[in-house]
Amino acid sequence: MTEILTERRSYVAGGWVDADETFDVENPADETTVASLAAASPADVERAILAARSSFDAGTWADTPAAQRARVLHALIDHIESRHAPLVATMVAEAGQPTFFAEFAQYQAGIALARATIDLYLSMPHEQASPVPLDDLVRGGLKASVRRHEPVGVVSAITPYNGAIIMAFQKVIPALLAGNSVVLRPSPLTPISSLVFGAAAQAADLPPGVLSVVVEEGSAGAELLTSHPGVDMVSFTGSTAVGRRILAQAAPTVKRVALELGGKSAQIYLPDAVDRVAAGAAAVVAMTSGQACVAATRIVVPADRKDEVVEAVSRAYAALVVGPPTDPKATMGPLINDAARARCAHFVAAAERHGGKVALGGGRPAGLDRGYYVEPTVLDLPDNSNPAAQEEIFGPVVSVLGYRDLDDAVRIANDSPYGLSGQVYGADTAAATAVARRLRTGAVNVNTGLFSAYAPSGGYKQSGLGRERGPDGIRAFQEVKHLAIGELR
Question: What CDD domains does the entry give (predicted)?
């Protein structure tokens, strides 16, 4: 068995930090302890912030030419690649993710995303002429009107448990490329894997203070990272409830805040694509156990074929293999902790109280007495007002809903406080795309999907603020300055 990463301390201002307090990281597959980590104190987190502030204000990294920043970050990525096997083993152990998911959806996708983000950044203009009508140039005595994209400053990057590495790549690389200094704070549930970024920063000779990685058991450090006057921007991925608190904590210092929050995405099947529903439903829970903010957990189908769909989805879910993530036959592992399992049970019960039916699952899989496992669950719901259709469950629970016509399908999909992602399937691509254009959501996949450094993601409504990935994701870490340049008269 491959050993996991060995570092157990926070990386602050260019060095590793010992601590008086420790905390345990649990393996959700068997409830054993993966490792005990040195817990960063609020004082350690403040030192990371002040070091980031100092490095940014001194121009240590921000004034380095972009091509040189790119070379250093390629070296940082090279080091992470050199830790491939133990990094994947760490993600499997601390997050309970099947090895396939940790390998491909986190490690390989993260490396590819990071390198492509560098290419994208270098292809973009970061200082350009700003168009001004000729009359304004003459009247103002201007010789040039210039728009510059400059780094925001000090960035707090706060990542979730379900995608610690891919989300760290998604935040840290564009923020550093833009010239910012960054403090990375991973979820206390899955912090070990993110320490690879500290080791990589050290190996790549990133100047001290430009990137720190702090691990803690509670939230005191995270609250400091969202409220400290030395921080200019908070980039957070996680629940909408926590996102609201971050907005409140950042408000007194008017920080920039980028939030990728919860979702209750819909997958809509046009009548000519209902035979595709079983595969689409399986993708929601396979590998992630439904622990993905973009998971399309509402399956919206023609009402006259709803019973057929419920049966097809139930067959597909019954065929999923639930088990330890190290089992190569397992297609679905555990949830992250007992609270997540209890949340699933709560919403299954609430669905039934409001007229829904459990077509499959809803309990603990047979033979798995340890670990936080939940059966793949199919709910047959009477309408979209059911709690299971309105609230993000974040587990292997899908709801099947029937629509009268395509207007009704769009209404159901948009009847949500969230708007992060969506899917539309139809043999008539033009018809499916027309439906996609009407959805109030940050991304819609029509008959396919795309995860790329060049394609943005983000939410409408309570699914967040701002965008990650793509040109918009890079600009999120930059301020815009206008220069009006003329001659003294």
Answer: ALDH_CddD-AldA-like
pLDDT in tens, 234-278: 999 999 999 999 999 999 999 999 999 999 999 999 999 999 999
In a domain, 1, yes or no: no
Q: What is the pLDDT of residues 418-455, one digit of tens each?
A: 999 999 999 999 999 999 999 999 999 999 999 999 99
For residue 440, what are its two tokens? 């109030």
Within 10 A of 347 (CB to CB), how many other CB atoms are there?
A: 26
At a CB cut-off of 8 Å and minimum separation 6, what does 238 contact? Answer: 158, 160, 187, 260, 261
On whether residue 5 sits in a domain, the answer given is no
**Domain check: are 138 and 162 in the same one?**
yes
Concatenated DSSP letters for 294-343? T---EEEEEGGGHHHHHHHHHHHHHT--B--TT-TT-SB---SSHHHHHH
Say yes or no: 163 and 226 in one domain: yes
Q: Is the dihedral of CA 48, 54, 56, 59 positive or negative?
A: negative
- Both tokens assigned to 218: 């509670």
CA distance 299 to 389: 10
Please confirm, yes or no, whether 46 is among the known catalytic residues.
Answer: no
Q: Are residues 241 and 340 in the same domain?
A: no
**Whether residues 295 and 246 fall in one domain:** no
The domain containing residue 141 runs over which residues? 10-261+463-483
Contact call for residues 402 and 302 (beta carbons, < 8 A): yes
* Among 26, 94, 103, 260, the one annotated catalytic: 260
